[in-house]
Amino acid sequence: SAFSFMHANLLLLLFNLLPVLPLDGGRMLQAILSRFFRRKPVSNALLILGNVIALSLIGLSVYGAVQGQYQFAPAFAGLYVLYGCGMENRCSAYHYYTSLISRRSRPLAHPLPVQQLAVSAKTPLENMLPRLKANHYHQFSVLHDDGMALLGSLNEAEYCALLMENSFLTFADALHHINKQRSK
After folding, report:
1. Distance CA 182, CA 184 (A)
2. Which pLDDT score is estimated for 22?
3. CA–CA gap between residue 20 and residue 42 (Å, rounded)
4. Which of 21, 56, 69, 98 could form a disulfide with 88 if both were Cys (CB 3.0 to 4.6 A apart)?
5. Is the separation of the CB atoms in 153 and 161 below 8 Å?
């Protein structure tokens, strides 16, 4: 009975260390690889690896059933990993936003350098995500469509908050929303 308990916990530990998102093994591998490569390709590669491992686990269970050995645990584990990869893929933007916001609360020895970005009023908020740099504070200057007149500006915190509410907003819509909040 104690042996069964230890065996079950060991299996859970090994399962959790699989290099797939959102399991701990995937998070550790993502943290290591993100030091050397950009975050998005690393996440995409881990999601593909997760789907391959999930389908392999399901295939292993089906193969066992064809052979007369009915072990459904690998199939359920594979379904869980498949579901987890799908949720991770849908929530990847949310994780990125929260990492942007959380780094602002970490104490830094030196202030963050400011990256000033000029954007057209018609640009959707989500289109600027690839231009954001790690360990920089972002300030957005919103320009009229002709590029000559400054309509207003957004700071990074305002940008992230609006992006999480509705990523399809344009910068003109965002300025309108922020100006309403500032006037209250």
Report:
1. 6
2. 81
3. 11
4. 21
5. no
Q: Which residues pair with 117 in a beta bridge?
A: 140
25: tokens are: 């093994």
Residue labelled with tokens 């308990």: 5
pLDDT of 68-121, one tens digit each?
888 888 899 999 999 888 888 777 666 666 666 555 555 555 667 788 899 999
Q: Provide the 10 A C-beta neighbour count for residue 74.
A: 17
Token code pair at residue 158: 């305002």
Cβ proximity of 172 and 121 under 8 Å: yes
In 3D, which of 27, 7, 15 has the Cα closest to residue 53? 15
Q: Which residue has the higher pLDDT, 49 or 109?
A: 49
